[in-house]
Amino acid sequence: MTQVPEPRKESKMRLDWNERALSNALYAIDASRRKWDIDEFYSKGPDIVEAIVDPVLNFLDVDPKGCTVLEIGCGIGRLFAALSQRFSYIIGIDVSDGMINMGKEFCPIPAKWIVGDGISLSGIEKDSVDHVLSYEVFQHVPDHGVIANYIQEIGRVLLPGGTFQLQLRKGSDTKRQELVRRLPRLGRTVAGHVLHFAGILPVRGDVDTWLGIVLPPSEALALSRPVGFIDLQILPDRMHAPEMGYWLIGRKPQILNDKRIELAHEH
Ligand SMILES: C[S@@+](CC[C@H](N)C(=O)[O-])C[C@H]1O[C@@H](n2cnc3c(N)ncnc32)[C@H](O)[C@@H]1O
């Protein structure tokens, strides 16, 4: 049964990602560099989209022309330029108004930007999106119920036949992160501060909204099946350590049993 996300977690995610956005947004999105030139930062988007989106569209036999793509956790729209070369309409939703405001200022691609509540796709209409993408977002989400809720919400907003791809976490990025993850809460918090002040990681705010929870592929599939998705698959995440990430992909059937969706929402 899906747990209802705690509102406290929602506000924590917004608070922490706003803090990261205001202090050094580009470093928080791509920690491989502490100081980014904004044009260089955006120039990384096309290679990422080519590596993560094209194989999934091919796999699911999707022609994106004329279609709407929704990116959950869009940050400042790093992927939008390349998405706009494939899809016709872009919607980006993010829990951080700091990220969204920066995206509106610096990203030149026409898009609908939405500050989300961090747990749902409220503000996006039922049956209105062709493809949902989320990259380097759920790996930071600290709550199982939040991910479960997003998966149900994807079933709501997708058009019949619409597709999705979510990058998720099955383990830690590094051995060091694994050690931190295993610490009790107090130890994790201290370690987060130390790593931040040592300039090793942009872990401002709560360490748990950076570490995220581990969601094994079998659990991701178990959360998705009751929503009624078809063509569910787990694919490798080639952008991160093999033991860390994976993709959950799937499709909303042409005729989705509304009863199933309602049931899933009741839990
Ligand atoms: C590492 S950045 C990735 C941004 C973008 N996907 C990209 O690849 O450029 C993570 C983004 O996820 C957003 N985020 C974190 N938790 C979220 C949540 N629960 N709901 C929506 N967005 C969230 C953060 O505000 C941040 O903009």
Number of strands: 7
List bound small molecules: S-adenosylmethionine
> What does the main sheet amount to?
7 strands, mixed
Fourth-level CATH superfamily:
Vaccinia Virus protein VP39
> Architecture in CATH?
3-Layer(aba) Sandwich
Distance between the termini: 6 Å
* Beta-strand content: 15-25%
Shape, per Cα inertia axes: globular
CATH fold name: Rossmann fold
Q: Structural class of the helix and strand makeup?
A: alpha/beta
Give the ordered list of helices and strands: HHHHEHEHEEHEHHHHEEH
Averaged pLDDT, please?
93
Radius of gyration from CA coordinates? 18 Å
Helix content: 40-55%
CATH class: Alpha Beta
Query: Strands of the largest sheet, in order across it?
Result: 3-2-1-4-5-7-6
At a glance:
With 267 residues, the chain is an alpha/beta fold.
Describe what this molecule looks like in 3D.
By secondary structure, the chain is an alpha/beta fold. It has a single domain, classed as Vaccinia Virus protein VP39 (Rossmann fold, 3-Layer(aba) Sandwich). It is built from 12 helices and 7 strands. Strands 3-2-1-4-5-7-6 form a 7-stranded mixed beta sheet, with helices on both faces. Helix 1 runs parallel beside helix 6. The longest helix is centred in the N-terminal third of the chain and has 23 residues. The radius of gyration is 18 Å and the shape is globular. The chain starts with 6 loop residues before the first helix and ends with a helix. The model has no long low-confidence stretch (mean pLDDT 93). The protein binds S-adenosylmethionine.
